[in-house]
Design a protein that fits this description.
single chain; 146 residues; three-stranded antiparallel β-sheet
Length: 146
Amino acid sequence: MSQGRETAEAVPIGEAAKRSGVKVPTIRYYEQIGLLAAPARTEGNRRLYTGAELRRLAFVRHARELGFDVEAIRTLLTLQDRPEQPCGEADAIAKARLTEVRTRIAKLKALEDELTRMIDECACGRVADCRVIEILAEPHRHGALA
């Protein structure tokens, strides 16, 4: 598709938000921090987004959904813009994120185990005898769970 045709099919920010699933203020924020280039503007100074810009926005949205931080996304976008490069850096970024996710899952599993133990030990009697209250009052043996 030629640049001229892509510009002719450009959409305003509200439509870009609708198509991409990214809210208008977030699109403006991504422009402000440099994840998206400033788009072309109409004579009335309204932003217009091309198909390429919508695809880039979708890339950013998906990366955010996967929990990548802004700097990782910036690096991944740079890599995407240079497809001839080896993908080792992209792999390393994804592996680091996976390690973060696995650590979070382990902490959540410990949280689940602690809550299950509290509930299982509760006799559902009076608060004075409540194991949930007692366990919460005890010094805990685990680190931060959440």
